[in-house]
Design a protein that fits this description.
heterodimer; A: 244 residues; alpha+beta; SH3 type barrels; 3 domains; B: 582 residues; Immunoglobulin-like; 4 domains; 6 helices; 33 strands
């Protein structure tokens, strides 16, 4: 039995302690490299953290800054979007995203659905809170036969209304910005083509930072829907999924 | 009804067609040819109705209209139409010719194509158009090289022509295989798909498969192209005994794989001169033009302006790098993006566009200028193209910023007192990162686990209520049963008449005949029970008698204080009957 205990202790150490200690040192090393202007080194360190799955809004925000410093505005935009996806209230990421979009000349305004999609997780949360408030207030309204009964009834109606609205909005938005097939154009000269070939006619030219919805892949080409609603093919390397 | 549907369809089609944008473009099938070979010019007009082909003319070229084709398609509910006018361009002499921009009027607007360049060369000794030695063979090949000498880096368009007798069937073997050129000291471009045509050589008509590519010498000296070889799977009549053009249906064919070799060629590759080489020369060799434009033409300081630099012409575009910006005082320029649009199959003739994002830090009225250097092999000298400073209107306040421009900062040093501003990003975050997940909330197990807490609490509350109600109900029942037992004891044992009468009436009250339905469910009172129709008349009279006696005894002090046994028996019998009818 003792060897089992030892095995579990060692496994536990590697499962929890090693990734965190690795993350800690790499994070600090990456930040240090960035502040000393060694952007390539910082990029490698940040990407290592991404690879081990230590996702955080700060990590993607910093990675966006590194890509910007390295002149890759497409990937900078992508990583700012990722940071905002994890933390919609991260003002620095929003500000930097606007700056880079301005630089690449992308002045497309997000649609109403896209704007709401950034808060897709808030709707099921609101629906859940409203549902339980409804359930408890309904229970109390049926039990209390005093003056406070009116309060519980009103609370029950209000919570019920919020639950229905939030659940409806959640169904409409779905995963929103966290949709696994949502991608951004990260390279210039990305043309949406009628067919999976360079020689095919162009449906429209897509700008850096423009969102697309990936549908299927064939070889080097991906069939997708642009934010304008047009369907077509783009070179797979021109777009990258927002969810890494 | 049919006409109404037709009208709706027509309106829909018109609406979608009207929404599509009109564009025109012109392309040449080849950008380099020789005097004897005409090329094809295609003028494509998208999403506009043009019936008459425009007249095109250029000095040194005979351009004749050859035909029209049109196509309409609807994709993704977007209708588009393409009208193609085809012209045959026949050179009348060797030289470099420019076909000017073609103007087409459509829907009240005038659209212009970009101008095209056609290089016409004389065939020379390298050209193997000497069919006499091959004239008797059913198949042969030739390598067509339009030049005897070229500079390092200069692209030489070459053709590999494979001639086949009209009666032969042939196909490249294996399929998709391209010819191999034997030699060293050169690189070639990727072959486009071969074209097929009929050519008359030495009085005979042949099917010709033409492979085109661009060849570039990489080092100075004699470049020897020994031959080019391509394998074909051919089907040929045994003996090829019939006269050309005569088809014998009984004729048998033999199939075989053959390697066909072309002749060789010798090209002298000259080094690029070092004298007069501009400092910013990056290796382009050819003939180019430079144009610049900016969008928007009116902006405020700090706003981005997109400056487009178009380099167009004939040459090695892979060596065309982003031109240097000069006079960038007050401007901050970022790394440009680039886009290459080829104007022929080989990509020798093309337009390379560089888009510079610029930001002005102070009010200005002109764009930065651009310098681009290349080597012109015809003039045999270096040429530096400079754009004229285009007008632009930048208004607003001077922006305070101290960072240097990341692009071409060495080309035109900014004044030290006021370096050009930069659009930079906010600094990184160094606090410990808070782990997060990209999983949507509904797919996170934690979300559903947390739902168990209020669900459990609600179940607990419901269960508690159930237990409390059950407990309360049993207490009432127990108390009632206890009271009944006491009253019965009193009725059976007590000799105090008022007490027994009161206990009997109370027992009647505690044994309701049924429950009354109303706004709430309640127990039937004794008076209600007495007036009930279903109660036997005799029993009703006895109960009323009992009530009356009880009131007289207790409140009127009438009758004896002591209960007699017969009266006790009557009361007990009444109570039992009451209970029995309940």
């Amino acid at each position: 039995m003792i060897w089992i205990r030892h095995f579990l202790a060692v496994a536990g150490y590697f499962a929890f302690a090693v990734p965190f200690s690795l993350g800690g040192t790499t994070w600090e090393a990456a930040n240090q490299a960035y502040q000393n202007g060694r952007y390539e080194e910082a990029k490698v360190n940040y990407l290592q953290l991404v690879r081990v799955g230590q996702y955080s809004a700060d990590l993607f925000y910093n990675l966006g800054n590194v890509w910007f410093k390295l002149g890759d505005q497409g990937r900078a935009i992508l990583n700012y979007e990722r940071a905002l996806l994890l933390e919609p209230g991260l003002d620095e990421a929003g500000s930097n995203l606007r700056t880079v979009l301005k630089i690449v000349g992308n002045d497309d305004q997000p649609t109403f659905r896209d704007r709401i999609g950034a808060y897709a997780d808030y709707f099921p949360l609101a629906a859940s809170i409203a549902f339980w408030t409804f359930a408890f207030s309904f229970f109390l309204a049926s039990q209390v036969h005093e003056r406070s009964n009116l309060f519980w009834r009103r609370l029950c109606i209000g919570a019920g209304f919020i639950f229905v609205s939030s659940a409806g909005a959640s169904l409409w938005i779905g995963s929103g910005a966290k949709d696994a097939n949502r991608a951004l154009i990260i390279d210039s000269a990305a043309d949406l083509k009628y067919g999976p070939a360079i020689s095919a006619r162009t449906v429209e030219s897509l700008q850096i930072g423009q969102p697309v919805h990936l549908i299927s892949e064939r070889g080097d080409w991906t069939f997708c829907r642009a934010s304008t609603g047009n369907l077509g093919w783009i070179l797979t390397r021109k777009a990258e999924r927002i969810i890494p | 009804m049919k006409s109404l549907i037709g009208l709706i369809v027509w309106l829909l089609c018109s609406a979608t067609l009207a929404a599509a944008e009109t564009s025109i473009s012109a392309t040449l099938s080849e950008s380099v040819t020789d005097v004897d070979h005409p090329v094809q010019l295609e003028l494509k007009i998208e999403n506009a109705r043009v019936v008459r082909p425009p007249t095109i003319s250029a000095d040194g070229l005979s351009i004749n209209f050859a035909g029209t084709s049109s196509r309409t398609q609807i994709l993704n509910f977007q209708a588009s139409s393409i009208t193609t006018f085809t012209y045959i361009v026949t050179p009348t002499r060797a030289g470099d010719f420019e076909i000017p921009a073609i103007e087409v009027a459509a829907a009240g607007k005038v659209y212009r194509t970009s101008s095209l360049v056609l290089k016409v060369v004389h065939l020379n000794d390298n050209n193997a158009a000497k069919p006499s030695p091959n004239s008797d063979k059913p198949y042969f090949a030739e390598l067509v090289v339009p030049k005897e000498s070229a500079y390092v880096g200069e692209q030489i368009p070459i053709e590999l022509r494979f001639y086949f007798n009209q009666r032969m069937q042939y196909q490249p073997y294996p399929q998709g295989q391209y010819p191999l050129i034997d030699g060293e000291g050169f690189v070639t471009k990727k072959y486009p798909e071969p074209t097929e045509k009929q050519l008359e050589t030495n009085g005979r008509v042949y099917h010709v498969v033409v492979y085109k590519t661009g060849l570039t010498g990489v080092k100075p000296g004699k470049l020897e192209l020994r031959s080019a070889t391509q394998s074909f799977l051919i089907s040929m009549p045994f003996g090829m005994r019939n006269a050309p053009g005569f088809i014998d249906p009984t004729e048998a064919f033999q199939q075989q794989v053959i390697d066909i070799k072309t002749n060789g060629a010798l090209i002298e590759i000259k080094p690029l001169p070092t004298a007069g080489r501009p400092a910013n020369f990056s290796g382009p060799v050819g003939d180019f033009t430079l144009t610049t434009s900016a969008q928007p033409t009116k902006a405020r300081t700090g706003d981005p302006v997109n400056m487009k630099v178009e380099i167009k012409g004939l040459g090695n575009f892979d060596r065309v790098e982003a031109p240097i910006l000069t006079n960038i005082d007050g401007w901050h320029a970022y790394q440009p993006s680039e886009d290459l649009q080829t104007l022929d199959d080989l990509g020798l003739s093309a337009v390379k566009t560089f888009s510079y994002p610029l930001v002005a830090s102070k009010p200005l009225n002109s764009l930065p200028t651009v310098e681009f250097s290349y080597f012109d092999p015809n003039a045999e000298k270096y040429v530096t193209l400079k754009s004229s400073p285009a007008n632009i209107e930048i208004e607003g306040d001077r922006l305070p910023d101290a960072a240097a421009s990341p692009v071409n900062s060495d080309a035109s040093p900014a004044p030290k007192s006021m370096p050009p501003p930069t659009l930079d990003v906010l600094d990184i975050r160094t606090s410990s990162p808070v782990p997060a997940t990209f999983l949507p909330l509904l797919q996170q197990p934690g979300f559903w686990t947390i739902q168990a807490i209020p669900a459990g609490a609600l179940m607990f509350l419901g269960l508690g209520l159930l237990v409390r109600n059950a407990t309360m109900a049993s207490q009432t029942r127990r108390a009632l049963a206890h009271e009944k037992r006491l009253l019965w004891k009193r009725v059976q044992a007590s000799n105090n008449r008022p007490e027994v009468l009161q206990a009997a009436v109370r027992l009647l009250e505690l044994s309701p005949r049924r429950q009354m339905r109303g706004p709430t469910i309640r127990t039937q009172s004794l008076n209600e029970a007495i007036t009930e129709e279903a109660l036997p008349e005799e029993l009703r009279a006895e109960v009323r008698e009992l009530l009356k006696v009880k009131e007289l005894t207790i409140y009127g002090r009438v009758g004896s204080e002591t209960l007699t046994e017969p009266e006790r028996s009557r009361i007990k019998a009444l109570l039992n009957r009451w209970k029995a009818t309940a």
